[in-house]
TrEMBL record:
<feature type="binding site">
    <location>
        <begin position="131"/>
        <end position="132"/>
    </location>
    <ligand>
        <name>S-adenosyl-L-methionine</name>
    </ligand>
</feature>
<dbReference type="GO" id="GO:0005829">
    <property type="term" value="C:cytosol"/>
</dbReference>
<feature type="binding site">
    <location>
        <position position="85"/>
    </location>
    <ligand>
        <name>S-adenosyl-L-methionine</name>
    </ligand>
</feature>
<protein>
    <recommendedName>
        <fullName>Ribosomal RNA small subunit methyltransferase G</fullName>
        <ecNumber>2.1.1.170</ecNumber>
    </recommendedName>
</protein>
<dbReference type="GO" id="GO:0070043">
    <property type="term" value="F:rRNA (guanine-N7-)-methyltransferase activity"/>
</dbReference>
<dbReference type="InterPro" id="IPR029063">
    <property type="entry name" value="SAM-dependent_MTases_sf"/>
</dbReference>
<comment type="similarity">
    <text>Belongs to the methyltransferase superfamily. RNA methyltransferase RsmG family.</text>
</comment>
<keyword id="KW-0808">Transferase</keyword>
<comment type="function">
    <text>Specifically methylates the N7 position of guanine in position 527 of 16S rRNA.</text>
</comment>
<keyword id="KW-0698">rRNA processing</keyword>
<keyword id="KW-0489">Methyltransferase</keyword>
<feature type="binding site">
    <location>
        <position position="148"/>
    </location>
    <ligand>
        <name>S-adenosyl-L-methionine</name>
    </ligand>
</feature>
<keyword id="KW-0963">Cytoplasm</keyword>
<dbReference type="InterPro" id="IPR003682">
    <property type="entry name" value="rRNA_ssu_MeTfrase_G"/>
</dbReference>
<feature type="binding site">
    <location>
        <position position="80"/>
    </location>
    <ligand>
        <name>S-adenosyl-L-methionine</name>
    </ligand>
</feature>
<dbReference type="Pfam" id="PF02527">
    <property type="entry name" value="GidB"/>
</dbReference>
<keyword id="KW-0949">S-adenosyl-L-methionine</keyword>
Length: 221
């Protein structure tokens, strides 16, 4: 997998990435490809496809996240991180943000710990636990929660609520079914702050980022 190919897609997102960012993203994809061949971390094979579908998909959310996360060092939880998406690419590009990767399957968290060491990523922690358990052990500790391909929107919101600080944000990465899933959400409990169409360079697929905030704080529930 070449950096030229990555740069081609990345340039079009409008993120000002350093050469060290690109080298780290490149290294992450190489590690993912290597582990995937052994452990079947993701269903998608082929480096070029991985670049488009995984990494670029994960970092296209950044311009919107930057608008909403204005504190210097926000704490963000990635629910059901799997092989580290979107948390690892976000942590690479945003070194002042702190990412907590929550993933129940141990062979996946072993990979995430390996990546943490290999890329010397000081701003991530990996929890080998179910999200429901972390909600009990770390209530109201996160400024934001994000997920990609984790569960349906309603369930994701239910799982996110106890983790959020008052005024916390939920970033839901969604594709075509976003409208259907939004209909299932009780909008008396949640405020939809943004619904952004994301453009994935070189890829003609629909992607959306929904940004929601609880209408009532978790302590009043
Ligand atoms: C389809 S994968 C998506 C992985 C990654 N976010 C991505 O976009 O490639 C969903 C992941 O969520 C994890 N998962 C599902 N339910 C979970 C729970 N309750 N707590 C923690 N992890 C969970 C699964 O083990 C799986 O790795």
């Amino acid at each position: 997998m070449s950096s030229e190919l990555m740069a081609l897609g990345i340039e079009n997102i409008g993120l000002d990435l350093s050469s060290s960012n690109i080298a780290d993203l490149d290294l992450f994809l190489q590690e993912m490809g290597r582990w995937n061949r052994v452990h079947n971390l993701t269903a998608i094979e082929g480096a070029e496809e991985s670049v488009r579908l995984h990494l670029i998909d994960s970092i296209t959310v950044l311009p919107v996240m930057r608008q909403f996360l204005t504190a210097a060092n926000p704490k963000i939880a990635d629910l059901g991180s799997g092989g580290g998406l979107p948390a690892i690419p976000i942590a690479i590009v945003q070194p002042t943000w702190h990412l907590t990767l929550i993933e129940a399957v141990r062979k996946k968290t072993a990979f995430l710990q390996h990546v943490r060491g290999r890329l010397a990523l000081k701003n991530i922690e990996v929890l080998s636990e179910r999200v429901e358990a972390v909600a009990q052990s770390r209530p109201r500790q996160f400024d934001a929660v994000i997920s990609r391909a984790f569960t349906n929107l309603n369930h994701f919101l239910d799982l996110s609520l106890p983790l959020l600080k008052p005024g916390g944000l939920v970033f839901a990465m969604k594709a075509k079914r976003a409208d259907e899933e939004l209909l299932e959400v009780s909008m008396s409990n949640w405020t939809l702050l943004a619904d952004e169409a994301l453009h994935i360079p070189l890829l003609a697929v629909e992607r959306r980022l929904l940004v929601l905030s609880p209408a009532i704080t978790p302590s009043t529930l």
